[in-house]
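CORE FACILITY INTAKE
Project code: CF-77B
Contact: R.S. (postdoc)
Sample description: multi-component assembly, two entities in total
Requested service: structural model of the whole complex
Turnaround: standard
Below are the sequence entries exactly as provided by the requester. Do not edit them.
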Amino acid sequence: MAEVLNVIWVGGTSALARTYVEEIGGRSKYQQFRTRFLMVGHEPPMAVAEDEGTSFGAEHSSPTGLVASHTHLDLTSRESVQTLFDRLPKYSGPTIMVVSVRPPLVEAPTWPRWLGGNDERNNTTTRRSAEGSQSMETTVTAGNLQLVASLEYLVQIAAKSGVLGVLHVSSIAAVDHLRPQVGFKYSLVPAVCFEASGEALWMNQFHWIRYHLHFSIT
Amino acid sequence: MFVADKHQVFVSEKDPLPPLEAYRGPYDVFKRQSEDVINRACAEHALTCTHLRIGAIFSNDQVCYALDIGDAIRCRHSIYVYYSN
């Protein structure tokens, strides 16, 4: 009988995770392994339709040997991170962890102040440093700093829980990957967009609008 | 030349990453810092670790986050392009 390889996918509610599981997950080239996906994120992916054959909402198995489940994780909560491995479905065998994280996948949404919410997590601070004759700025958000600290804690907890390795979906090819790929200019986006709901979400909106404008023109 | 103006393709893994200050977007800073802390935690606990730096992802998702090149492809073939994470 094939051995079970457990894949704990943090941020496993993303389109990337869904696509991987649907297209590749059940067809591992390593026939000696049967893969069990333990999807972890803030909430089950509502966009995943039951009739499309893959659901992360409840543990299930398929003829391809895929087993998927979803476990809640709020990376902004230390308790949530600390108890994650106690709350996961019981598993045994070799385990690796995929870390594929952006804020909307692993934290509760925050509302901006102008909508009556507390958006302290989206407050940005700018650090300046000089390199040669240029002064460079790095903008960080309080929420992102907290997520980074939580990630380190999560890996430490994972190591103590027997995880053998980490695959981090980083996506930064070199630096400022959004700008050369989509011609995105941070300076053209009002600061309120970054404060409203997290950068990634608003940038997605930006591209959605751009996409539909494109079609309406062509 | 400012490091952020480097070409984003065919960058060797042997090239050192730019300094943190070279990253302008909060999301890029977050990803870079994530690499650093994961490296540190994995080293402490002797875990193997790989950072996957993807330029674009073709996805089954119905939501389209367009790349410039994605716009051109999608117009002709009605596929979805996902990228972000």
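Facility notes:
- Chain A is about 35% helix and 25% strand.
- The mean pLDDT of chain A is 66.
Invoice: internal transfer
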